[in-house]
Structure formats: structure tokens, C-alpha cells
Fold these 3 entries.
Entry 1:
Amino acid sequence: MRSRQVPVYSGILFLSCVWIHGVDSTPAVITVRRGYTPNATVTAGRDAVLVCNGEPSEIGVWYKDGYSYYIAYIYEWSGNCNFRSNQILPRLELGSSDCREHALRISNISKIHEGRWRCTIKMEERAVNVHVVASPAETTTSRTQDSVNPQTPSVTSMTTILGGTVGGALALLAVVITVCCLLRSKKDKRNNGSARGPVNGDHRHQDPEQRKDAVMVDNVLYDSYGGD
């Protein structure tokens, strides 16, 4: 029992720390470069900043595989860094005031942001594959729930158990019915045998009057007097 309580208490302590200190607020900075497509892994709930370096006056357009149109674009105008989004994906904003980075910030990243992101500057494309993994809090919560009730049977196992029990009961019922039918058939045969007429010379099962007549017929004295 104590071994089950240890992971439960550990999970509660970890969740308390996360609630007090929060998830890592430092954004994950991912820089896309020319020539190759790197893979980047970000924890769910964390912020991520995608950086695509170029001249500030040049327009940096961000795309994501699976969407026909651009996701957002960034450019400098009158000394200010301008950000435009088509609102296809939520929680997107300008990632840096330095327009040379054409930085796209993804707040509270989740699975909907996972995939291949592309940045285009002056028709030159760069890309990065973003993978979103579960946060430690979610993993710990799942493990804590499993440790609280590790022996809880699944729906599939319960269905299998119930199916086996019902099948066994039906088989037993079939055996009982078969035995009862055999006993009933044997009893009927006995009754039919006892209801048949007596064999010649056997007067055990005859009516008393019939037995009397039979006796008188066989009696020599009765025949000689003829009942006179």
C-alpha cells in the first residue's frame, strides 16, 4: 500500500510546484536557415518563437503545411515592425521588435501548431519541423491516475469476463436440459410397458371379474353342471 502512495504524493507535489511557479516562461527560439530543414521539439503550453532572418524592409511570409494561404507576414514600415495574421491559427503574434528576425511568436503552443512551418523572403524558402510533446505535468498526472487505481479492469477485459461467464452458464443450462429430457424419456418408456395387456396365462394385471371367469372356465366341475 505504501508503494502506491509514493507516486501519488510525488505527483501532487510536482503539480503544486507547477501551479506555484508555472510552466517555463522562457520561449523556445527556433531559427530557420537556408539549405536544410531542422527538427524542433517544444513542450506543450510553452511559447515558441520562429525566427527567419533577413533585411527588415523585406517581407517575411510564414506558411504552414496543410493550409492553402499564408499564416502571417512581417515587415518594417516607417521604422516600425508590422505584423499581419489571417487568424487561421490562434495565439500568434509578433515575436520581436527587431524586424530583421521576422519573428513569429506562438503562445501556449499545442498540437494544432505542430507541423512543418515555412518562411519565404524574396521568394527564398526556409523551413522547420515543429514537434509538440506533452508537458511533464500532463505526464505526471497520467502516471498518478494509473498508480491510484492500477488494477482497475478495462472495458474490454470486463466484456471478455462477462462473455465467458454467460457462455459457461448457457453450456451448463444445456447439459441440465439434456439430462432432464433423457430421464423423462426413460420414465415414459416404463409407463408404456406397464400399460400393455398381460401375457397369456398371466392374470396378475387382469380385472377381478375377468380373473373369476377365467377360473370358472378352467374348473371341470363348473363345466359339467353348465351353471344349472
Entry 2:
Amino acid sequence: MFVAGLAGGGDDKNPGTKAKPVFSVQRAVDLAREGRGRVFVCSDGFEGNVRLPAGVDLLGGFNCWRWGRDLYNKVSTLQVNTTSDPVVIVEPAGSGDTGAADGVSTIADMRMRADSTISVLIRSNTVVEILRSEVMTSYGWGGGDGEEWPGPNRAADGPDGRFGGDGCSAGAGGCGGRGGRGGGNGHPTIGSVALHAKLTVRDTVIMTLDGGPGGNGGPPERGGKPGRGGPGAALDDGTWSCAGGKGGSGGTGGYGGPGRGGDSIGIAYLDEDQLTLEGVGYELAPPGKGGMSWNHDGSTVSAEDGVAVETLRFPEP
């Protein structure tokens, strides 16, 4: 199936031939999954997420009119500007995907630019080759600051003392305030995530933008007000007992802990023996800074910053 922009005559009502290409990459994929399993993308820019069944190829860098290799613009651009999903998701083929018979997806000569923290997601039980391409992420989302406790943001007051009898009855101290809520961790930016999948990347550049900053610790809850002392009472001998003393105010809680900064990662994966890398370049932006929190003496505490790593094997969820 052939994909071209408006200048190349692309129209999703077309059959997807060289003479009558379709306009959107996903439309071409939907036709190819039941056809010959190959999508040829002209060297133009296209917008929209693509769900690619394993076994369907995505091949860019073709001249939009002659359909030979474009000698000046050697890659085709696929980007997403309005969603948090990866720009390409490779998933297992279904029983009706007759065009995906070999089960291997080749993504070649493509520039994949996401508006999310992950550019390419490769699901389990798939086999993918990424060749001569560019994989680009957006910024990591910042972790949220710890939320303030709902009003009145004060712990329970201490109960008042009872009427005195033979002795004084003091008021109880106010309840101590709860500690602030913790700040959220910053989100990482990851060029490609491979689950239980076989991934080969060759002659490709992976670029990330900054990891998300960690959130700051939330403010504490104030301590409760003290209870009043109980009033004195008349005794049998005609004297009065003393009034109880006022209780102490409850202590204010501590600030919540800060969140860790988000990482900047080229490729994250699960299976070490399923990953092959040859001629891969990385342009990793800085990771996110850790959030801050405060002590009662005015000093500050900072959480751990994220890290920038080319590849990272992550544990099973």
C-alpha cells in the first residue's frame, strides 16, 4: 500500500496503489494487514498514531510522485501533536491479518516524533526491526506536588476537662497534625519500550527531551486546638476544687516527602536476549530534577534526580 500527502494525490478513498495512494498511514496499514503486508510512505509529513500488527512493514523515504528512493529527503515523518499515546504501537497480529504472515515488522527510513513520553511501544509476542530511522520523544510530565489536606486543615481539637471533684480535671491536648502528602515522581521520557518482544535497532538515532521534574512535598496539617480545663466544683466540706488547666496544642505535622525526577532513557526493555543494537546513536536530554520538601527549621530536602541512560532493563511490573 502507498501513502502520499495531498500534493502527491493521497486520499483515503483511494485503493492505495502507486497511481492512487491513500492519505493516512493508518489507512494504509489497515489495507496492508489483509493484503501484501507492506506500506510505502512517501517522504512527506503525516500526523496520527499508528497501530501496526506484527508482520506489516512500514517503509519510508520514497519520492511522492515517482516512488523511487528520495535522494534529498531520505526519511518520512510520522508525528503526533494532540495525544499522549506513542506514535507507533506494534502489537501481535490477529487471525484475520493475512498480510502479516511472516510475523516480523520492519520499520525503515521513518522519523517518528511523539508528543508523549514514549515514542514507540512494542508489545509482547512481536518481532520488530527499526532501521535507518529517528525516534523522538516529547518532555516527561512533572510529578504533582503533594496536595494540601482538605479544610479546615487542622487536626481534631482536644476534649475539654470534666467538672472537678476531689481533684482538678485538666483539658486534653490537641491532636497532632498529619504529615503532608508526598510529591509525585516525575515521568521518564523513553524513545522505545519493548516488552516481551524481539527488537533489533540498526543505524538509528534515538532522541529524548527532558525527564519530568519530581513534585514538591505537600504542606502539613496543623495541630488541633487544646481542650479547656474543667471548672472547679464544690466539695463536701464546703470548699471548692481547683479548675483544671488548659491542654496543650497539638503539634503540626511535617511536610510530605518530595518526588524523584524522571529518567531520560533511549530504549527500555524486558528481555536481555531479545535485544540487538547496531550503529545506534543516542541524543538524551537531561533527566528531571528531584522535588523539594522543607523541615521545620527552614532547611530543605531534595529528592533524587533522574538518570540519563541509553538502555535500561526494567523489572517485571
Entry 3:
Amino acid sequence: MDEEWNKLIILYLGSKLRRRMKEIKLNIQFVDFGLKPSYLLDFGVNSLDSLINLIHDLESRRLIQRHLLAVKLETDYIVMNPDVFMEMYTEPYDVVKFVDITSVNTPKVVVKSDALDQVISTCFSAVTDGSLKSADDINMTSVFGVLIGYPVVYWFEPDSLKSAGNSQVVQHAEVLGMTDDEQREVVFSFSYPDNLINVLEKHVSAWFQKWEEAGKWRELFKSVSMKCKRRTLLSMVL
């Protein structure tokens, strides 16, 4: 089965991505089995048609079981599971916490705003319409974070990228799956400001517990875990 996946990835996405075949295969499977709603490919894909054809061929060969969407935004591509997204975000503000990093020295959790409503609306439109339309007043970093399914998503003023080059001490979290042959694979990798740990740690732990109890990971892994480590990031945006 791995050989068939590899042949199709090379056929549609090109031999330059040979080193990332395992990553691509695993993440499409994560989306297919519902471990996460979307997978961002921000590397090496030359056209939307090639990704659409890959997904269609995987489906026709029954290498994936659900109907997945491939969507392009500027130079990036996303593979989405619409059913998982809609199920996950019945109450969006309960699922994801937004952190405003416009000023990296004083990041803050934003409960709700018109700008965040617009981010969420853009995500729902992408899922229902099968397309993503960028706009100057929408923070696409936040859109990607919501689509991928992170429990904490960064937001900043669209006309101010001063946060991009500033370092920040964060809690870096990884959700890991253990395979039958004792290999650890990363399902999610995200962060949140260390100085907001008292505000966000409980939310992240509850998010992981709910995800673990849902049990969709059992299709691919014998166990899962989440680890957090204090780290300094040079950039706070995707």
C-alpha cells in the first residue's frame, strides 16, 4: 500500500517531493480518518489540478475513504475533510482560542470580535464553497490555524506584520501518535505564548482530552500523547 501511495504522490506532485512522501501520506490519512479537519501543504505543489487529481485517484483506488476537498490560496494548498470541520466547529469559540499578537510584548486572548467572526466565516465558506478567497482585511494566518484545527490560533492586525520578526517565548505543543512498530508521528504541532499559560493550559488540555476520547486516532495508532516544551520562537506567524 505504501508503494501505491508513493507512486501516486510522485505522479501527481512530482519527484521533488520524494523526501516528503511519508509526511504527505500520513497527513492526508489524518484528514481522511478525521484526526484533524485539514492539512496545509505550503511547499512544492505546482498546481491545484495536480492535488485534486491525486485526491481523486486515491479515492478511486480506495486508499482514502471520505470525500476530501483540495483548495488553493495564493501559493498554498489545503486538503480538507468538510464533514469533520463542520462537526468540530458547531461552537467555534468554544473550540479555538484566539491570541492577539499585534504587540508581542503583551499578547492577549481575544474572546470575540468582528475580525474573528470574519476569520471563522471565511473558513466556513472555504469548506462549503470549496474555495478560499483572500482579502486584505482578513488574517489568513488565523484562517489556516482554524482550518487545520489548532486549539490556539494567532491573530494580528492585517496591516501590521511587526510581530513576524520578533521572538517570543512559547509553550510548544505536539500531539504524537505511536504506531505498532514504535514509530512516533506528529499529528499536531502548535504553540501559545508562555506568559498566557495560566489562561490557555487548561483549554489545551481539555481540547486534547476530547480529541483523545473521540478515538479516531485508533485507526492509525496504538496510543497517543501530548507533550509541551518551553521554547523561543523567532517568528510568531506561519
